[in-house]
Design a protein that fits this description.
heterodimer, A: about 750 residues, alpha+beta, Alpha-Beta Plaits, Calcium-transporting ATPase, cytoplasmic transduction domain A, 5 domains, about 20% strand, B: about 55 residues, mainly alpha, 2 helices, elongated
Chain lengths: ~750, ~55
Amino acid sequence: MAALAAAAAQAVEPLPEDRRRLTLVIENLECAGCVPKIERALQGLPGLLEGRVNLTTRRLRLVWAGRETGLPILLEAVLAEGYRLAPFQAGRAEESEAEARSFLLRCLAVAGFAAGNVMLLSVSVWSGVWGDMGVATRDLLHWVSALIALPAVAYAGQPFFGSAAAALTAGRLNMDVPISLAIVLAAAMSLFETMRSGQEAYFDAAVTLLFFLLIGRLLDRTMRGRVRSAAENLLSLKVDTALVAKPCGGRERRAASALRPGDRILVVAGERLPADGRVVEGKASLDVSAMTGESRPQSVGPNAKVHAGNLSLDGSLLIEVTASGERTLLAEVLRLVETAEQGRARYVRLADRVARIYAPAVHLLALGTFALGIGLGASWQVALMNAVAVLIVTCPCALGLAVPAVQVAAVGRLLRGGILVKSGDALERLAEIDHVVFDKTGTLTLGRPQLLNAESVDPADLQTAASLAAMSRHPLAAALVQAAGPVALPQAEVTEHPGAGLIAQTPEGALRLGSAVHVGATGLETPDESQLWLRYPGGRPVCFRFRDSLRPDARAAIEWLREQGLSLEILSGDIPATVQEAAKSLGIGQWRGAVDPTQKTARLKSLSRTGRRVAMAGDGLNDAPALASAHVSLSPAAASEASQVAADLLIQGDLLSPVPEAIAVARRARRLVLQNFVIAIGYNAIAVPLAMVGEITPLLAAVFMSCSSLAVTANALRAAAGGRAKAPLPAAPQQPNLVA
Amino acid sequence: MSALLYLIPIALLLGGAGLAAFLWALRSGQFEDLEGARYRILEDDEGQGSRRD
């Protein structure tokens, strides 16, 4: 609570009239029923002006009058209902992103209004062709269409005009250039035709084009916004604060980023270190797996050097900060990530690659039509008209929908399966891979130790040991408790000795649980293995052996990947012996242990130089640079913050099968995108020749364009349907596969 | 054909009303939580928590 209040206080935004606003992420907002529960808990609190839960973003927004109530009262009310909260760290992009989305919606509304009304008038004109509509009536209808369409195009076309102008000034062509050109030319030519009381006006084509394209644009943005907000929520749950021991005696909570060298900080069992430093007082076992991948805890005592990101397992430490912020090892890793990511920014999305060919081809075609018209002796007006008609019918309306519609469907489907895709092109890149590199600890394995010899030890011993272990937060102790099932709490008083073990004072003497040294079993322990020892007063020591186990479905997932023709590899920072064992158990031939972050990155770079497209799956801080330099990267949602930032896809839950599932969906999505391109190009193959010889009427253009857009959208929806896209069903094994 | 003289304005007016209603809904934040809105409609007591600044 104190930590939350301290972190939340920094995220409060002041509003005018002494009001304050705070956005919180609700970690365990499971169902719709939670929404009224939370809002009712807040209702009637003095000074609260707004307390509203947003189920889409899973956030709670509070606005209150600063002088009437305090933040802790509000937080307490929600916490009392059993919800876990974290202050939302709004990115700078947040505000402008919401603004951009609402602008797109406004454009869509205007285009929709115009399209409906202009189409109404156009249908009258088209039916008039076969009836007895007079020239004056037709002109009137054209003029009314112009009055609606021209302002609508000017307003709703802005998203495309802006992007096209930016591309042209940079000397490039993107899909928005032919789009803008087609819309502007269609509107201008129709106005010209209307003024000289001509027969054919394309106002309806211009605005319906705009309407369809805006739908595609909005889908694209909505998908990205939804995924990004989910990713930001995950990051907000990981705010680091530090408990600073002030020289004068008091203690204070401070954000990790506000630490200075020389500060003394307290780290209790179960906390991550917020900065690099030197131990002043205390002893503890540190879990360094996030930094090195090494799964065995390290014991540290006074004067030991410790790093940000390490987790204290059992003891409290007083640490003098030696480096914070930019100079920590953590920041060093983040810099590596940044450099690696610059390489990936060169990736060109599929739609843009198509645009590079498509845009010049369309422009040449229009020019050719004009030249052909003149050459065949038509007047320049007719030739120009045909050229414009070519531009209108080739406007990549279906292409603009082809990619976003598939991606929205695919990403939405993955999101329901607990897979977050952080960018649209991540799916495209995932579909191209031919090699997968895994980290071991925390990726192939659960990253938590499991009891290995539950069958061979006496159940009574296990019960006794577990009742002691229940008093500790050490991961081995937790694994012991989990393996023993329900246990009775110890009768005697239990004391914990950090870095060593537990002692219970029984009437017969001291009952000990802990390291081999702690129970006096020195020499009996095996190296390279995590062990806990139990010794009754005067009895023989009993050994409990632990190993980190593979994720329950790891074998099935790996098997599926191999069947898909992907080559697999393990790169781990852990000691080679355990890596070898995991590799053998999974049947992965290529593996390396004791690899540091720089070597991992180097390996990925050399792979990509030989033309391989590599997917990297990893979780630790030591994996982050490698994740960023891979063609595409995946990371469990429980991973370190640096890895989450670097990874393209985040996977929630304890299973490995989302990896093959994501690959299957990505490949399917790519197939659908390519099919959509074929549909769109097929439509062009029919429409363009007609347009070139001047046979396209506004009616035909409208029918063609709507049909191809609908066909493309309907095809895209198949990405969301069809259950699991041939990914393996996760086998639910009774017994976890225990290795390494 | 003189019917057009009042039918066209009526059509435009109706369309314009729809557009205005949509823009109003957008401005008053009704598109902010599309997930939650479909459950909120089932809630009987519309408390003060639902107000927007």
